Amino acid sequence: MSVLYKREIPLAIFTILCTFLIFNYYIGTPATDRIQSDILKYGITISAFALVLGTYNIVKIHVRAIRKRSVYYWPLSAWMLATMVFTTGIGIFYGQSHPWYNWIYANIHVPMGATMYAIIAFYCMSAAYRAFRARTRESIIFLLPAIFMLMWNAPIGEAIWPGFKYIGDWINNYPQITGYRAFWIGVGIAFVTLTLRMMLGKETAFLGKESE
Amino acid sequence: MLALLLITMALTYYGMRRAEKGKVPKIRSMPPLDALEEAVSRAAEMNRPVFFHVGGIDLSMYTIPALSILGLVTELCIKKGAHLICATSYPIMQVAMEDAMLTSAIAAGQPEYNPDVRFYAGSSFSYDAAIQGFMFRERPATHLLMGETDCHLIIYTETATRIGAYQIGGTSGTWNLPMMFATCNYTLIGEEFVAAGAVVSKDAEPLGSLQGQDWSKLLFIALLLLGGLFYQLGIPTLNNFFGM
Predict the structure, then answer these.
(1) Alpha-carbon torsion (A24, A29, A35, A38), positive or negative
(2) Residue A59 lies in a domain
(3) Cα gap A98→A89, rounded to integer Å
(4) What is the pLDDT along chain B (244 residues), one digit of tens a residue?
(5) Interface test with A, best of B7, B8, B104 (most A CBs within 10 A)
(6) A141 — contact with chain B (CB < 8 Å)?
(7) Does residue A127 fall inside a structural domain?
(8) Model pTM?
(9) Could you say which residues from 58 to 97 on chain A have a Cβ atom under 8 Å away from some Cβ of chain B?
(10) Which residues of B fall within a CB distance of 8 Å from A180?
(11) Position A123 in a domain
(12) Record: contact B203-A205, CB cut-off 8 A
């Protein structure tokens, strides 16, 4: 019964829904489109319920850190829990349009997100510095198109040498697009194969424990 | 296009049946998967954790192969005595990761295994900050990033580089592939990543499906060549058939 409950029934639900969604994509009608829309809504609803699990996990980890004082950063755990309870409380009891909620979003969440986004530029530079050192023949092959693409994108590139524009255009429109499309055709076929393996129960990592 | 999808599925199914009857195809070794053992051993020797995550993405076609790889990594960590830590920003993914780890632990004879999966904030930049903080505090010796994420990838991998972590990446998308190449020691690319589940399982039927996949690819290449030829000759038959 356990195997049937934990694996066979979820697998049957997955296979039926997957087959329906695939066929509806190609030969759907307005009626089946509505059913598809409902199925996708169920997915969103289930995800919202699953958020409780995530919250439980966060609380468990940080409460443990505070109780045991096992890590030097336990005050940060306390701060994290306090801010989480405060923000969630305002959102639940006063709604997302409350001025306090908006203040937290506009003055804490957005600037911190923008800070993280800004860091990306510096990390790209350090990664590019290491990747583009011409130590081997392969890295030179990697480096040359990168230089042309960099100069093609940078406004100063064309001012230095107009040829950067033409070479950049050619690299972007031919080798890049060719590789990109070949990549996605390969991945598309691989996804079809993966879906079939999942529908036949041959790829079951997403179904969890086999026995208890 | 539905016809092509059905043909691809039929070829895959035929490959699986063929393998079941004993004609198991030989799959080339994948250096990133081979390097997993070395990566886990390194962490065990340094007495530092192995860190596995899929980036800021939920359970989807982009992350299901990662769960198979996670199963293998869990097995290796149990065998080598390394502490495996996983992180995700989606609660459904958290449960799926815990289940994949428990399944492997049960198979490895450790049903009492306690998976260490951490749920960090659902917002992508909050998740980035949490991962950065985690890496600097707990300094994992190995960073395994198997999944899909866009520009955020460089934050994870560059932070891992700064703490001297050994990195193996895997993705079935193109958005972060150049960054992954530039920063990781090994990378599973595109269909290699999707096929990893079959390769890791070592079972006949999943391996046979990869042969069916190769036959489908040959069919697509033939169609592309024919389409190009017909187009040059001014015969629109094939292009019209595919609605191009």
Answers:
(1) positive
(2) yes
(3) 11
(4) 788 899 999 999 999 999 989 888 888 889 999 999 999 999 999 999 999 999 888 888 888 899 999 999 999 999 999 999 999 988 888 888 998 999 899 988 898 998 999 888 777 888 999 999 999 989 999 999 998 887 888 999 999 999 999 999 999 888 888 888 888 999 999 889 988 888 888 888 889 999 999 999 999 999 888 888 888 888 877 777 766 5
(5) B8
(6) no
(7) yes
(8) 0.88
(9) 58, 61, 71, 73
(10) 174
(11) yes
(12) no
